[in-house]
Amino acid sequence: MAARKIVVVGNGMVGHHYVEQLLASGLELDITVLGAEPRPAYDRVHLSEFFAGRKPEELALTTREHYRAQGVKAHFGDAVTVIDRDAKRVVTAGGRRFAYDTLVLATGSYPFVPPIPGGARDSCLTYRTIDDLGAIRVQAQQSRIGVVIGGGLLGLECANALKNLGLEAHVVEFASGLMGVQLDDGGSRMLRRKIEALGVCVHTGKATKEIVDGEDCRLRMNFADGSHLGTDLIVFSAGIRPHDQIARDCGLEVAARGGIVVDYHCRTSDSDIFAIGECASFGNFIYGLVAPGYRMAEAAASQLGADKQVFQGADMSTKLKLLGVDVGSIGDSHGRAEGSLAYQFCDEKAALYKRINVSADGTRLLGAVLVGDCADYDTLLQYFLNGIELPAAPESLILPAVAGGAPKLGPAALPLAATVCSCHNVSKGAVVEAIGAGCCALGDVKSATKASTG
User: Fold this and answer.
1) pLDDT higher than threshold 80 for residue 85
2) SS in 3 state form for 401-446?
3) CA 202 remoteness from chain centre
4) What contacts 238, CB < 8 A, 6 or more positions away?
5) Nearest CA to 159 among 194, 199, 197, 208?
């Protein structure tokens, strides 16, 4: 009996993780990977390190040789343009045809570029791929000032990249604050203060009306409020849109706001086609972080075996460092839940801001915001993820020790099911089991469980 033909369209982090799950399953499968980019999967989370001297091969998650050794047929630099559902095959831009029994769409997303008059210039770029970064580096060599349009997570990473390239960096954001999805007003204000102290100019509440030739600079951005800003380079980082056009073209169900509609098995409206990662819409929501994408990949891969898993949504909490500033966001960071109570701690001298949102009865953590110090993040995340009852004075979780802060939540207080590594979904129990099996060094535990390797 011929092996089942699996065709994976897209080889980003999530698409590669799906392939890894298939290889680990032990099933007899005929796997083909089709990637639009000219190189195999790489670590997009640490993309900005390219400007700090990290080479593309150091960001690689796999190689052509590795896929070949595992029996995976991989083709890169030739995007899939057509899905023929009746014939059960896909066609690439180069005219190649690949038949499938199961098709997996891991096409990811693309940068949203606002339709601003004058924005289609060589010095107006996007920030998404290694090739994008190469183009930014070339333009930066003949620039003095650079502007990022977009004050979200990726936009601030891009501003850091421009600063590392030696440019005077500016961030232009349409909304009133930075990282509005993850941070409340207080956290956004503190983040702005810290970023401006590092030499990045922030302009909020600015709608770019047009981009024209500049006087002292290559370009001039004219804003709707009558003000303007001169720059030599503009990078758009104003959000993402799901790569769902090939799904639309072949009649798969697409959500009203974009994204290929999937069920809890990550199956689309065609039972032989799955969608995972940022191209997929689950419950009318697109998960733009790598950890939920990995959970989708695992659920989809499991449908080929006996032990079927489900995807039921994922936690979008995140901890990161932007321009050297610690930022953390957990759960309902804005305190939108009905009846929720907020506790805030702000130290302007130390430039720290912390907020927790708790249930009306004060027993459960609903969300948190941390700017300038994420030392409490892991403790708060465990309270949130595991529903651990809060201390009688919840504010003690974010107060400094001299002001009556509570001690950190120790490992012994966590249930064995507690997640300690969200990227690879590693539980406390898995770590304990690895130690019990003889993994006594940190590197051995990481190798055995994959904890902290994402």
Assistant:
1) yes
2) HHHCCCCCCCHHHCCCCCEEECCCCEEHHHHHHHHHCCCCCHHHHH
3) 23
4) 111, 112, 113, 114, 149, 150, 152, 155, 174
5) 199
- φ and ψ at 118, to 5 degrees? 90, 5
Query: Which residue type does 27 have?
Result: L
Rounded CA-CA distance 138/154 in Å is 20
Alpha-carbon distance of 245 to 251, in angstroms, equals: 10
Virtual CA dihedral for 428, 433, 439, 444, nearest 10 degrees?
A: -50
Residue 408: per-residue pLDDT: 61
- Whether 196 contacts 202, CB under 8 Å: yes
382-407 residue pLDDT tens: 999 999 999 999 999 999 876 555 55
Please count the residues of the chain: 454
Q: Which residues contact 175 (CB under 8 A, 6 or more apart)?
A: 151, 204, 205
Phi, psi of 146 (to 5 degrees): -130, 140
Contacts of 404 (CB under 8 A, 6+ apart): 393, 396
> Residue 258 has what DSSP assignment?
S
Angle CA 148–323–124, to nearest 5: 15
* Residues 440-448, mean pLDDT to the nearest whole number: 80
- Between CA 451 and CA 42 the distance in angstroms is 19
Selection from 69, 72, 63 nearest residue 19 by Cα: 72
Q: For position 206, what pLDDT does the model report? A: 96
Of 306, 11, 276, give the one whose Cα is nearest residue 19: 11
What number of other Cβ atoms are within 10 A of residue 132's Cβ? 17
Backbone angles phi, psi at 294, to 5 degrees: -65, -40
Q: pTM, whole model, 2 decimals?
A: 0.89
Token pair, residue 50, equals: 């390219």
Query: In this predicted model, what pLDDT tens digit does every residue of 299-322 receive, in sequence order?
Result: 999 999 999 999 999 989 999 888
Q: 224-279: per-residue pLDDT in tens?
A: 999 999 999 999 998 899 999 999 999 999 999 999 999 999 999 999 999 999 99
Closest by Cα among 88, 16, 8 to 272: 88
What's at 148, amino acid-wise?
V
Beta bridge partners of 435: none
pLDDT at 404: 54
DSSP-assigned letter for residue 233: E
Rounded to an integer, what is the distance from CA 342 to the centroid of its chain?
27
Per DSSP, the residues of 1-62 read: -PPEEEEEE--SHHHHHHHHHHHHHT--EEEEEEESSSS--B-STTGGGGGGT--HHHHBS-
